[in-house]
Amino acid sequence: MDLGWGFFIIWWLFSPQSARRKRRKQFYAFITNINLIKEELFTIYEQMLVRRQWLEEKIKSIETQLTTFPKGKISCTRNGNYTKWYQSDGHTSTYLPKKERKLAEQLAMKGYLSLLLEDLRNEKKAIDLYVQQYDSHVGQAERFLQENADFRELLSTYSYYDLKTSLQTSKSLEQDIQEWLNTPYRKNPYFPEQLTHKTLSDYCVRSKSEAIIDMALRMKQIPFRYECELTLGETIVYPDFTVKHPKTGQIYYWEHFGRMDDSAYYHKAYHKLQLYTMHEIVPSIQLITTYETKKHPLSVETVDDIINKYFC
Q: What range does the domain containing 171 cover?
């Protein structure tokens, strides 16, 4: 501790008793507020470091994935109601007949992942710049306070640090969400062979529609778990998605019912909805539901609208 801090503390804590309590209280409040601001800055810094590590891992993963795709790019042209696919090597384009749909799908995914990779690299560059600036410049305010006891004395009676409540709330919520995401949970142990669709979130899900929901949540940075165990009375269920609101921390459950044209399936679906409601998890309030049939598949637009309504 420097001499400036020492004299400041002695003067505040050992003055006459009538003023001492008041000054001691102001002093401790002052120190608390200063530490709070420092913690908030460091929390953001830590988040950037965690995010950068995640980006590095994701970039490496996508780079590896891209090496497994066929060469070339795909372009699509429309002629009336018909779409034609062309594979290009940068010089010439080759028409792909409909029987080559698998190849077209692979090239389309390659194109998407290439753009995603560019986005992730740009984000990492921005974080690298932030971390570099933080390491070089942050800390000036604290050094100034340490070197200027008179300035500290003037600030100590201020309550501009009323930021305290909002900062604490923000900090604790962010920490809570991060801990929630990092905490292992019990997953659905049944029919693992049906988990055939790998997603960008590294989950394996059971259908293309669930993959759409997964991708939309991931792209909008909405924290979620897939098929996390939930106990309702004496019954254990595994909601398709357990979602934590990024701004409030409230938990929502998302069930996708994908075969509503199957009579046996929709009877089970109705029973499941009844079970949720009996335990005060009500559709359109805490429970999000989506439905589809063979004739009416789930659309990306529908999923985006729901996410915007509940979480954005």
A: 3-65+114-181
